[in-house]
Write a sequence for this structure.
């Protein structure tokens, strides 16, 4: 699979997926209503959208992703992971649209928010619009606070509260980072989200 | 080394531990036995500093210092270790990296990844653990037995002064039990680690020989003795030991 | 089946049920369409207190001002001017048994609906003559201090309670259709469960075929006082003939401290009906509200039972089944508002679309700031049975509090070839296999229904499946 890095700051990007591609999205902190649309007109193609972000005080993200399946035998998985520190504010809309002709489509969406700080806000709207029957489509969205038991467990091994929190945040992103096939891009993203820590 | 004086512990306003006195010296192995609900795990977790347990009375001195004033991290760095009854899964955290991180926090001579992995491999061999476990995520997808072995591995790496083992034997088959016992006994002999074994089965004590045995009921220690006490328990059961 | 012409049977109960005190042979029918005069006439016919009349008039104004909602199904064909907003029962359009469609008669036969009920359901008989049963069961409830009456009657008998609660949870200004209902409401149930009362049998189970619950604009008000347990069931899974093309009901439920209430609805309106309902519950400290919502019929249903969790540790649940067949659109779901700390909620939605039908799940989970430690789980699953049908999910999670724990999962799929094959290899026909799989799919919700509904529902699924293969 080809890996492409998309640096989104504002506005809408609409791309037609012509070959198997992994789209890694890099969001600038001052993201102001960004939308990424992938259109599947060509049969047999697979794509992935991977997006990770970390928000601190007064930082916000407004993001929309849409995968529109118009041709049969395509598949797409969208992974979004965000960590909210104090005052972080995220708003995410994820659409999976499968048109009537797009039989045998597999499309999935996963949106996970880990809340570390206080005074955070997050909106999540995962949408499915399905007109074909021989498809597999699903989405999952979770929002949760860092688990107290996990924090305590790590602290009981000698880590301070902040170190434990950072380790949990790193672990949260790790499973998604490991999916990025291009090392240069992987490291770029890793640095970006790690530097967001307090 | 570890001195517990008249310790009272509450959970959500209810008193569970009603005045415990216990002293564990360097190199000693103590067994704390009692039926479910007697307060054994509460004691263990409270000693480690679990946030939901409230100490209402009493004193705990560890190596001359006031343990109760320290947070869990400080207690760990001071040399206290708890093998959890239900260890947490922490997703995405690589075991080798994690252990190296916490190891390096307490030694003068820190180790680079390669050297640490060599050390880790040695300890894993003692516990009959396959090398690939090193690169799994912390407790993620582990069976009960695997989690317990992971706790003991951590103990061997961290070399604590006092190790509390909370029902480490539960859910282990006989082979796993032998291996875990091997690890604990090794640490006790070579590093003079004091051990508090918490269990309600006498089976474990056939593999790790305690110097002292205490029976706990309803939040108090009702009798203390030597190894013979374990045999007595085996024969008579807990009901023979009223408060 | 007999071919008889049925006379309309006016029964003395009509007086109390429909709440007017005019002589029996006076026939009144409002003209078609809605205006201030009609609203005034309705209030007059019912002999209502001034405050209610003013309430209706205010609501009518709001109804006129509000635009039609565009976010849901297609409401463009509703002709407000072509509806009778109030009919005395004597004038309910009835028809002859011979005019009842053959499919409907066959369905009754297959579902095992009792003879007398069939005529009523088919719109041939005006009222299910159940006075004897009705009377003695009401007495039982009375003895326990439970109030269970038609809304019209309750307004007269318990005006203080009415004024305290009526319209407080769903005000006319809430949406265009609640405004409409507030202006022209008639019929519905009023239920008061006293403190600490535990009502073992579901209310309404006895009055399944109750004309009140088939009114166009019924208004239901339920108060479950502190520590009480009760449940309420309405509707019928058999197809119901209705001359009315618009059903716009409002249900308000107040669950007080420590009380538990379960409200179950199964609707199977005929295919020309627009079913637009606002159902809302306010749940206080340690209270529990459960909505069980079955949407099988109608041309378009828009219904999102909701819970406002205003007290600590309140719990709200919505269990929703939707079946969207030919020419149908079920737009259903649920909304939960976490307003206080330590509240929990869950929404489970199962939908099936077939023969070109469409089902949409629309839901909202909102956690307000200071609603600490909110926990919520939403699961919506959809089965699309053929290439002509469609399914959508439009969930929203708006979380303004950092300690919330929210999970949402949705899947859309078709019946797997493997599963079908496996069941058929054990001797089932394709139809039997399909209906077994669909039944299994909706099982988690069906098991929450009273037995007779569950049985009917399963048989209905079988029937539908037969249509899909034959």
């Amino acid at each position: 699979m080809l890996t492409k890095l998309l640096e989104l700051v504002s506005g809408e990007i609409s791309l037609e997926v012509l070959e198997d591609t992994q789209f890694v999205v890099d969001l600038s902190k001052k993201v102001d209503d960004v939308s990424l649309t992938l259109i599947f007109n060509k049969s047999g193609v697979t794509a992935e959208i991977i997006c990770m972000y970390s928000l601190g005080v007064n930082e916000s993200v407004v993001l929309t992703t849409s995968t529109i399946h118009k041709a049969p035998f395509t598949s797409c998985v969208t992974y979004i992971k965000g960590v909210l520190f104090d005052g972080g504010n995220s708003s995410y809309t994820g659409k999976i649209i499968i048109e009537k002709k797009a039989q045998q489509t597999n499309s999935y969406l996963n949106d996970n928010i880990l809340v570390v700080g206080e005074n955070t806000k997050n909106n999540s709207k995962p949408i499915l619009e399905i007109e074909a029957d021989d498809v597999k489509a699903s989405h999952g969205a979770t929002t949760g606070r860092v688990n107290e038991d996990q924090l305590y467990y790590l602290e009981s091994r000698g880590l301070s509260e902040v170190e434990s929190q950072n380790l949990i945040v790193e672990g949260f992103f790790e499973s998604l980072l490991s999916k990025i096939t291009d090392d240069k891009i992987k490291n770029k993203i890793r640095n970006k989200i790690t530097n967001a820590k307090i | 080394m570890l001195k517990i004086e008249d310790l009272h512990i509450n959970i959500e306003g209810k008193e569970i531990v009603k005045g415990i006195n216990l002293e564990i010296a360097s190199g000693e192995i103590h067994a704390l036995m009692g039926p479910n609900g007697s307060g054994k795990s509460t004691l263990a977790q409270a000693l480690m500093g679990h946030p939901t347990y409230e100490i209402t009375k009493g004193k705990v001195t560890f190596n001359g210092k006031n343990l109760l004033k320290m947070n869990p991290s400080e207690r760990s760095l001071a040399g206290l270790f708890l093998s959890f009854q239900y260890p947490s899964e922490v997703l995405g955290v690589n075991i080798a990296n994690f252990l190296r991180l916490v190891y390096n926090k307490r030694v003068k001579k820190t180790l680079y990844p390669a050297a640490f992995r060599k050390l880790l491999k040695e300890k894993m061999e003692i516990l009959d653990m396959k090398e690939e476990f090193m690169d799994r995520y912390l407790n993620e997808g582990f069976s009960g037995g695997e989690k317990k072995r992971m706790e003991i591995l951590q103990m061997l790496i961290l070399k604590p002064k006092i190790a509390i083992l909370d029902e480490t034997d539960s859910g282990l088959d006989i082979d796993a039990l032998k291996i875990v016992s091997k690890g604990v006994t090794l640490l006790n002999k070579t590093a003079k680690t004091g051990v508090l074994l918490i269990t309600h089965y006498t089976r474990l004590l056939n593999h790790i020989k305690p110097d002292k045995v205490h029976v706990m009921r309803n939040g108090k220690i009702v009798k203390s003795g030597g190894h013979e006490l374990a045999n007595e328990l085996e024969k008579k059961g807990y009901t023979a030991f009223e408060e | 089946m007999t071919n008889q012409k049925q006379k309309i049977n006016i029964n003395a109960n009509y007086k109390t049920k429909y709440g007017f005190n005019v002589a029996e042979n006076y026939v009144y029918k409002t003209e078609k369409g809605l205006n201030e005069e009609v609203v005034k006439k309705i209030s007059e016919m019912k002999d209502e207190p001034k405050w209610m009349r003013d309430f209706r008039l205010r609501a009518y104004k709001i109804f006129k001002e509000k635009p039609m909602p565009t976010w849901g199904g297609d409401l463009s064909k509703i002709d407000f001017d072509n509806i009778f907003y109030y009919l005395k029962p004597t004038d309910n359009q009835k028809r002859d048994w011979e005019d009842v469609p053959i499919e409907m008669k066959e369905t009754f036969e297959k579902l095992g609906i009792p003879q007398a009920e069939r005529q009523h359901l088919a719109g041939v008989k005006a009222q299910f003559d159940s006075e004897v049963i009705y009377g003695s069961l009401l007495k039982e409830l009375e003895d326990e201090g439970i109030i269970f009456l038609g809304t019209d009657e309750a307004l007269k008998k318990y005006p203080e309670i009415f004024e305290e609660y009526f319209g407080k949870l769903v005000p006319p200004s809430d949406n265009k259709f609640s405004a409409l209902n507030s202006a022209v409401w008639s019929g519905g149930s009023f239920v008061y469960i006293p403190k600490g009362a535990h009502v073992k049998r579901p209310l309404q189970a006895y009055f399944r075929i109750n004309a009140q619950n088939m009114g166009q604009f019924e208004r239901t008000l339920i108060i479950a006082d502190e520590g009480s347990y009760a449940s309420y069931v309405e509707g019928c899974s058999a197809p119901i003939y209705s001359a009315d093309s618009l059903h716009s009901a409002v249900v308000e439920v107040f669950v007080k401290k420590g009380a538990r209430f379960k409200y179950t609805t199964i609707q199977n309106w005929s295919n020309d009906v627009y079913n637009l309902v606002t159902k809302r519950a306010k749940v206080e400290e340690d209270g529990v509200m459960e909505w069980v919502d079955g949407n099988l019929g109608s041309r378009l249903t828009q219904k999102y039972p909701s819970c406002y969790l205003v007290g600590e540790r309140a719990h709200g649940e919505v269990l929703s089944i939707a079946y969207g067949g030919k020419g149908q659109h079920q737009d259903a779901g649920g909304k939960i508002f976490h307003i206080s700390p330590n509240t929990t909620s869950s929404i489970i939605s199962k939908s099936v679309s077939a023969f070109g039908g469409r089902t949409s799940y629309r839901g909202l989970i909102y956690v307000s700031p200071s609603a600490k430690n909110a926990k919520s789980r939403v699961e919506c699953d959809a089965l699309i049975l053929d290439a002509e049908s469609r399914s959508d999910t439009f969930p929203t999670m708006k979380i303004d509090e950092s300690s919330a724990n929210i999970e949402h999962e949705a899947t859309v799929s078709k019946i797997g070839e493997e599963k079908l094959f496996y069941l058929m290899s054990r001797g089932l026909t394709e139809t039997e296999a399909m209906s077994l799989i669909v039944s299994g799919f909706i099982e988690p919700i069906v098991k929450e229904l009273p037995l007779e509904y569950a049985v009917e529902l399963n048989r209905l699924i079988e029937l539908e499946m037969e249509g899909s293969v034959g």
The radius of gyration of chain B is 18 Å. Chains B and C do not touch (no CB pair under 8 Å).
